[in-house]
Specification:
A 7-stranded mixed sheet has the order 1-2-3-4-5-7-6, sandwiched between helices. By secondary structure, it is an alpha+beta fold. Strand 2 (58-63) and strand 3 (66-75) form a beta hairpin. The chain has a single domain, classed as Aminopeptidase. The relative contact order is 0.15. The chain has helices at 15-37, 42-52, 96-110, 124-132; strands at 7-11, 58-63, 66-75, 79-87, 114-120, 135-140, 144-149.
C-alpha cells in the first residue's frame, strides 16, 4: 500500500455493494464453511450473510477508489462486534486487515466498549493474527471461537 490515505471505509448502502460483499464472502470463506459444515448451500448462506450485512455498521472497503473488501462493526451492550471481515485475495497481506482492526479498536475505545469478533475453527491464519493483535478467546460456538480484545481503554 502506498499510504494510509489510499484506504477508505464507506457505508454499504446499495444492493450492488451487498452483492459484492456476499460474492467476496463466497470466494474467500466457502472452503472454511464446507470444512466445518460439510456442505455449502448458496441460498441459505446468502440469506444468513445478508441478514448480518445490513443496516448501520456494514462497510465497503475501498483502496485507490476500487472496492477491495467489506466488514461490519455492530454496536452491542458492552462491546462492538467486528463481523464479516473479508478482503480480496489479491489484497491480503497488504495491511488492510490491520487497518480495519485499528479502526474498530478506535471506535470501541472511544465509546468505552470492548471489541469482539468471531473466527471459524478452520481459519487458523486469522486466529493466529487475532491472537498476535491481543485478542483472547472468551467463548466457543459450534463453528468457531468468540474473541475479545484485552487492551481496550476508555476515555
Amino acid at each position: 500500500m502506498n499510504t494510509t490515505t489510499d484506504i477508505s471505509f464507506r457505508p454499504s448502502q446499495s444492493d450492488a455493494s451487498k452483492s459484492y460483499a456476499f460474492d467476496l464472502f463466497k470466494r474467500t470463506a466457502k472452503d472454511n464453511v464446507v470444512a466445518i459444515k460439510g456442505h455449502w448451500c448458496d441460498e441459505s448462506e446468502e440469506q444468513t450473510f445478508m441478514a448480518g450485512f445490513s443496516g448501520e455498521g456494514a462497510y465497503i472497503i475501498e483502496y485507490n477508489n476500487e472496492i477491495v473488501g467489506c466488514f461490519c462493526l455492530k454496536e452491542q451492550d458492552n462491546s462492538y462486534m467486528l463481523q464479516r471481515m473479508y478482503v480480496e485475495p489479491s489484497m491480503q497481506g497488504m495491511g488492510l486487515g490491520s487497518k480495519i482492526l485499528e479502526h474498530a479498536k478506535n471506535v470501541a475505545s472511544k465509546n468505552g466498549k470492548f471489541l469482539d469478533l468471531e473466527v471459524l475453527f478452520t481459519n487458523k491464519k486469522a486466529f493466529s493474527i487475532y491472537k498476535k493483535k491481543g485478542f483472547e478467546v472468551i467463548y466457543k460456538k459450534p463453528l468457531g471461537y468468540g474473541m475479545r480484545l484485552k487492551t481496550i481503554t476508555t476515555h
